[in-house]
Specification:
Elements (H helix, E strand, L loop, with lengths): L1 E6 L9 H20 L4 E5 L4 H15 L5 E8 L8 H13 L2 E6 L6 H11 L3 E5 L7 H11 L3 E6 L2 E5 L5
Parallel strand pairs: 1-2, 1-5, 2-3, 3-4, 5-6
Antiparallel strand pairs: 6-7
């Protein structure tokens, strides 16, 4: 089964360090749970923040324990990774080194590139794991609505709360 991971960009220092680690830990636990539930193909967006953390963690899991999983990194446009924070750049390099495929949706910036990226991942997925800030506007909210319209299973992860959603049935 296929799972895509998309989410709001949560910058460092927007959560206190303890809450940030709790959120990452919950996300990592959820990824391993999905692997145990026979999700073996993961598509990850690769924005700075939690998306790149999840891609990096999946790369780590693939390298040390779950060699059977596949990882596809999906970029909305050709990334200018040279400007990324050193830690995020390092995580990007780690994820890229273990990924099976890298997909670039648009070679240059365009307004719809992020929407096209999210739709590409959703269309291929059985489950859409969404790291969401709860705001009902923007790229992630549009992705949730698109996944609903396609009848996809959606797992919403919101800050400290994790809940399964029957949004697809609303």
């Amino acid at each position: 089964m296929v799972c895509c991971v998309i989410g709001n960009k949560i910058k460092r220092n927007t959560l206190d360090m303890h809450r940030e680690m709790m959120l990452r830990s919950a996300l990592w636990d959820e990824l391993e749970k999905l692997i145990y539930e026979d999700y073996s193909c993961f598509l990850c967006g690769i924005k700075e923040g939690l998306e790149i953390d999840m891609a990096s963690h999946l790369a780590y899991l693939k390298k040390v324990e779950y060699q059977h999983i596949s990882l596809e990194i999906v970029l909305s446009r050709k990334a200018d990774t040279q400007n990324w924070d050193g830690d995020y750049y390092s995580k990007y390099v780690d994820a890229k080194s273990e990924c099976d495929k890298t997909t670039v949706i648009s070679p240059v910036y365009c307004k719809k590139a992020m929407e096209m990226r999210n739709r590409y991942m959703i269309d291929q997925s059985d489950l859409v794991l969404v790291i969401w800030n709860g705001i009902k506007k923007g790229d992630i909210w549009n992705a949730i609505q698109y996944a609903q319209s396609k009848g996809k299973n959606i797992l919403l992860m919101k800050r400290k709360k994790i809940f399964c959603s029957d949004l697809a049935k609303d």
